[in-house]
Amino acid sequence: MCGIVGYVGRRNAVPILVQALKDLEYRGYDSAGIAVLAPESNRLVIVKREGKIARLEAALAEAGIPDANLGIGHTRWATHGRPADHNAHPHTSCHGEVVVIHNGIVENYAELRAELVSRGHRFASETDTETVAHLMEEQLAEGHSLLDALRLVAGRLEGSQAIVAASPREPNALVAARVGNAGGIVIGFGEGESFLASDLPALLPHTRRVVFLEDGQFARVSADDVLVVGRDGARLEIPVHEVALDPSSALKGPYPHFMLKEMLEQPEAISDTIRSLVTFEPPTLHLDDVPISPERLRQVQRVVLIGMGTSLHAAMVGRQFVEQIARLPAEADNASEFRHREPVIDARTLVVSVTQSGETVDVLEAMAVAARAGALQITVCNTEGSQATRLADGTVYTRAGVERCVASTKCFTTALAALYGLALWLGHIRGVLDSGELQHHLSELMRVPDACARALELRPAAQRLAAELASTASMLYLGRGLAYPVAMEGALKMKEVSYIHAEGYAAGEMKHGPIALIEPSVPTVAVAPKHALRSKMAANVEQVRARGGRVIAVVTEGDEELIRLADAALPVPEVSRLAEPIVAVVPLQLLAYETAVARGCDVDQPRNLAKTVTVE
Ligand code: F6R
User: What is the pTM of this model?
Assistant: First the structure.
């Protein structure tokens, strides 16, 4: 969850690190810090502060930190030790010989700390990370190189970790480790300079030539050279990737929030995603990054879709696509539950993981369970080179570009488009969908970007409703069929960004409990577009209204009956049944955004959240 950056080269590291931390602030933002190696004294200078990067910047200006050619930086999402200056990273050892930044959890840290204390070490923080600095200092004292010290210490840590360290003993190099799936380490190659980061966005302003460390790999990075070794210390030859992401897409531009910018980017992002999967005239599908033979796919008897949060909601929609288009038994599961419950899967199961970042630990661990069972795996992912894309047998990339707002919007709708494409592909290969039907679906799918663009015009209507919702404490979201996961997603967006308590339910469930909550102060959002069991939804709307509840309905344009029945309506353009969820979610995103703005919330960085969740 935390953001990690490092620089070694000929330029002043400080502004580079600060900017890179800003690019990664979405990963965690309860404290931040940097450490540089002062060139004249060859001493480590560390500045860190609780709070956002702006506070760190003020502290750096005050401290008069020296120009330096080597440094590391960190933005934190607290696991061990409350957010406070002394718990912020980087952490150093007793004699200031090592400085460390870390992402992950040292599960046996209490034991290691007790052991270190018994040998006379004194700790300055309550973090698990600090144990790493102390253990590394001991290894350096025994004469090991910095890289070997990290490698040997990593061998003693339980859990998954990404670590970067520096030391005055080796003033020209940084070292890095990746153990397990707690988070990535990407090394970037510049001209006479090198970079390290937990995620690509921090490197893109500088270079597109990168190396991704895998589980069990360790690196020593200097200005002109990178050495990667395995757990045994033997040198490894690692391929350098050229990444294609456009750094300008990561900037906020004229928009007040990334969330707004990213919602407005959806028509283009969905269109890019569809175009990357479809060749036109006649429309056919080509999943270039899924090198799985038709024979192997025809062996599949069941599909399990997994994800977390918004990606789980996409998986829930995807499950219905697979059932209804490819006619394969399908289920959707929360990745963190799936991985712990000994799921019954085998080589005839296709596991489809949905993950924007490709680095969510619950998803990666679930993928590892699937791999051990011999299942075939496809990931629907937005991040090239991420761990999920490397674990899966094939990837369907969403072409959303970098998503910076912690609350996901364009990655949800592009994932739905990609899952629709994947289900069509499976259906076609398995012979349940002929070319004519495939082309019909594809032409329906291609109408979605325009329909989303029109749905985005509901922003003023969402703004008006938000003014009323701003004082609400609790809300219900209801939907059926393909609109059920959309209702869940609408509720998640609302609670994430506005902190209003919101629950998403299958509308059929309402009478079995949630109806007890209905009262004038608890608004209900009914997601009732034309094809999602609309007449049954109309009955739900009546039931809520009969109990004095207020209803906001997402309906298909022209549905005058529902528009009259509801207290307020958000009409979306008509699209085909399977494309409806992609369009119906747009007004719910707008409603959550405008309500959060009306309540004065920190839209892009809601409290307690992080964009990429790399701890369990
Ligand atoms: C919510 C949100 C999260 C993520 C979840 C999975 O707006 O963004 O619920 O969807 O943390 O992340 P990925 O898709 O990166 O695996």
Answer: 0.78
**Distance from C-alpha of 325 to C-alpha of 239, rounded to nearest angstrom:** 39
* Ligand 1 binding pocket includes 544 (Cβ within 6 Å): no
**Mind listing the pLDDT tens digit for each residue in 77-122?**
777 778 888 889 999 998 999 999 998 888 888 999 999 999 999 9
Residue 184 has pLDDT above 60, yes or no: yes
* Beta-carbon contacts of residue 293 (< 8 Å; ≥ 6 apart): none
Please tell me if the domain spanning 251-433 has the same topology as the one spanning 456-615: yes
Q: What topology is assigned to 3-242 in CATH?
A: Glutamine Phosphoribosylpyrophosphate, subunit 1, domain 1 (3.60.20)
Q: For residue 525, what are the β-bridge partners?
A: 477, 552
The domain locations on the chain are 3-242, 251-433, 456-615
pLDDT at position 280, please? 72
Q: What does CATH list as the number for 456-615? A: 3.40.50.10490
pLDDT tens digits, 393-430 = 999 999 998 898 989 999 999 999 999 999 999 999 99
* pLDDT, position 233: 95
Centre of ligand 1 to C-alpha 82, Å, is 24
Q: Whose CA is nearest to atom 6 of ligand 1?
A: 308
For the CA of 383, the nearest atom of ligand 1: 15
- For residues 500 and 591, what is the distance between their CA atoms, to the nearest angstrom? 12
- Which residue among the candidates 48, 261, 493, 611 is catalytic per the annotation? 611
CB 574, CB 416: distance < 8 Å: no
Amino acid in the structure at residue 438: L
C-beta 496 within 6 A of ligand 1: yes
Q: For 251-433, CATH number? A: 3.40.50.10490
Distance 292 CA to ligand 1 centre (A): 27
- Say whether 2 is catalytic: yes
pLDDT computed for residue 1 by the predictor: 62
pLDDT digits over 526-543, tens only? 999 999 889 999 999 999
**Tokens coding 183:** 């988070």
Two tokens, residue 52: 């956002």
Atom of ligand 1 nearest to the CA of 409: 7
